[in-house]
Amino acid sequence: xxxxxxxxxxxxxxxxxxxELRCNYSSSVSVYLFWYVQYPNQGLQLLLKYLSGSxxxxxxxxxxxxxxxxxxxxxxRKPSVHISDTAEYxxxxxxxxxxxxxTFGEGTQLTVNP
Amino acid sequence: DTGVSQNPRHxxxxxxxxxxxxxxxxxxxxxxxWYRQTLGQGPEFLTYFQNEAQLEKSRLLSxxxxxxxxxxxxxxxxxxxxxxxxxxxxxxxxxxxxxxxGELFFGEGSRLTVL
Lengths: 114, 115
Known about the structure:
The complex is a heterodimer.
Chain A: E1 3-6, E2 10-14, E3 19-21, E4 23-26, E5 31-38, E6 45-50, E7 56-58, E8 64-68, E9 73-78, E10 87-95, E11 103-104, E12 108-113
Parallel strand pairs in A: 2-12
Antiparallel strand pairs in A: 1-4, 3-9, 5-6, 5-10, 7-8, 8-9, 10-11, 10-12
Chain B: E1 5-7, E2 10-13, E3 19-24, E4 31-37, E5 44-50, E6 53-57, E7 65-68, E8 75-79, E9 88-95, E10 105-106, E11 110-114
Parallel strand pairs in B: 2-11
Antiparallel strand pairs in B: 1-3, 3-8, 4-5, 4-9, 5-6, 7-8, 9-10, 9-11
């Protein structure tokens, strides 16, 4: 079975500062990796994903994540955050053969302060 | 709105009562998932359907829980004899037929409070 560990439950930062949300996973088989975001009072939305190919993946709103197989990590980064990035971020994995059955981490609450 | 729709959004019930939640997925999606999320935790997988077939159930899904998707469109999740430990947000998601892209489209959830 696979598991996901998000190392920080809360990350407070100031606007325009860089941020890194850490995610480590464990699995005995190849996995797909995802970051989902949940804005206040909204459903979970896919932010970005790694399926294959380039290990650096980007979202349309400036986030990026790098798949590091040797360290079994998929950390999420943004060089300059905005107040609107305040949300809960969930890292998730699925096995290649699991039919999109996702295993989520416990989430990281990112709070961007002015 | 053509997203995943869940009803009711909030349900307060007394211990021992039965509750039912409904999920309407995005119309062209044939996979439908139920997750449960408690405060401070990530979503936990409960079960999923491909069309009307229930393909996998988590051990979290006790005998008091039953999910159906009779015509391969909407789905219901029923909890019988509710317990206070059932209080949680119940999330529904759907995905495209191949399912291999990993993108699940989530509804806003149905929050259950058991008194």
